[in-house]
Amino acid sequence: MDRWFWCDSSLSSGEAVAASAKSIRLYDGDKKTGYEDGHLTLTNQRLLWRHESQSSSLGLPLSLVVLIEDEAGGFTSSPKLVLHLASPPPGHPSGPIASSHASYVRLSFKHGGCSSFQQALQKALEARAWETLSMPQPANSVKASGSKKIHTGILGIERDIQKKQEAASQNISRAFEDLKNLMGLAKDMVSLSRSISNKIKEHSVSADDTTQFRSYLLSLGIDDPVTREKYGSATQYHHHLAREVARALEEPVQEAGGVMLLSEVYCRINRARGLQLLSPEDVVQACNLMRTLDLPLSLHTFESGVQVVQITGLDQDKVVKDTAQVLACHEGDGMSAGDLARECGVPLLLARERLLQAERCAQAVRDESSEGLRFYPNLFFSRS
Amino acid sequence: MTEFEWPWQYSFPPFFTLQVNADVRKTQLDAWCALVTSWGKQGGVTQIDVTEASDLAVFKNASIHRALPPDGIQVVLEELVRRGNLEWTDKTKRRGYLLWRSAGEWGTQIYKWAQGSSRINTVCTLYELAHGDETADQEFHNLDGDILLKALRTLEASGKAELMDFGDNQGVKFL
């Protein structure tokens, strides 16, 4: 309670009122004081308590507040805020009570407003407005609650780096301001061209007009919307690519048993090329063209979506028969996809597809259990 | 009671997985229906409760650690209903009468016997039919009362018999 001092009710420069409350009683530690039913004002630097009858107020600098706690009110008591205070600095002005043993004061809110006042007080403490004003104070003044901005040491270096980063990001955003304007203007143009191309798709416009319009769109840098959606644009590039892939991979595919996963094809062709690698889309589109170009390899898609490149004219039935034969050798326990992969030396995905294909042709039956998916030869047909 | 002879399929793990291939599934269901009906006949099982079906010995084989999953059991039961070997007791389809020989088949057998023993246009009590001395050599001797009634009803539906009520007893007239 000895931290309160008499002061003028007027606000100093740089001080602003943050919150206020009525019917406040001050407690010295746990003891009630005679200062009750007063008006409490929170500024960004101090707390002012004033009774209506008086002109001067009791002030408490916020710099002395270390901790705020709240006590909920009961039936007989009103909610209170407990402010733990630091010891006053040597030059602290005198107040009503010369000394007190308690290092905390309590504010009793008879008419409520405790929680909102507490929030405002927390904010004011976090803002630490008195620090910026008190910079010129000597460095050896004891301020347990406040901490001065450290310009040296690691913290200072960190702050420097942070400042530099902020400045850099500000510069960048300023530089791209112009680009944002340009993008805004271009957006209208792009939406207009998109709407026109959509209209073309819906209605049939005469061929000459469309080709001309398409060339305009192309010059703008917008892909031709019609061919983009068609799977596989029939450009010469992809035709050449298809031939190249077929030529390069015919033997490896043959060695691998006539079937190779599309992912493996992609890896191998890029490995072979070394430089000027191909994108996955290009490889897929090239493989799609293989069948139409009558190449020795062609793309095949299984029902489950897995895609493979296989020798054209690969006898699916023969593959199924081979799989059934392998299964027959393992009649006792059946085979999982992993077992077949190991046995035949094919990738796991391919082994799974083979088993599923055999199942579709009624050459294999499945066994689903907690142990996983296994396949057996179709004894339902062959036996009894 | 002799030990039930399980068919080879019972030890074949894929038997306990509902097959995906339609043709294979049909063969599989044939085998299941035959198994359930012969097991029911051998063990004197007349009713199946759907909620307890997964505990029945016929739907699982612990030695190969396989059991028919509930949706598989449901499919098998529906197939039995379709073939006339299972009849639901009520609309909720929770309990059904297992008829290892369908009611229609029983009806045909009874009518054949009636023809053979020249009982056409005569009346017989149901007791006589099921427990009488004259039917002692017939398969439907000691047939469960409900099933006998069902069988006679099928005959009624096809106009070969007429059910009558004599107070305490029930009788049937073969036409």
UniProtKB/TrEMBL annotation, chain B:
It is found in: Cytoplasm. Gene3D superfamilies: Winged helix' DNA-binding domain. Chain C. Domain 1, Winged helix-like DNA-binding domain superfamily/Winged helix DNA-binding domain. One of its GO terms (molecular function) is structural molecule activity. GO terms for biological process: macroautophagy; protein transport to vacuole involved in ubiquitin-dependent protein catabolic process via the multivesicular body sorting pathway. It holds the Pfam family ESCRT-II. InterPro entries: ESCRT-II_cplx_Vps25-sub, ESCRT-II_cplx_Vps25-sub_N, WH-like_DNA-bd_sf, WH_DNA-bd_sf. Its main location: cytoplasm. One of its GO terms (cellular component) is ESCRT II complex. Keywords: Cytoplasm, Protein transport, Transport. The keyword Transport applies. The keyword Cytoplasm applies. Belongs to the VPS25 family. PANTHER family: VACUOLAR PROTEIN SORTING-ASSOCIATED PROTEIN VPS25 (PTHR13149), VACUOLAR PROTEIN-SORTING-ASSOCIATED PROTEIN 25 (PTHR13149:SF0). This is Vacuolar protein-sorting-associated protein 25. It comes from Scylla paramamosain.
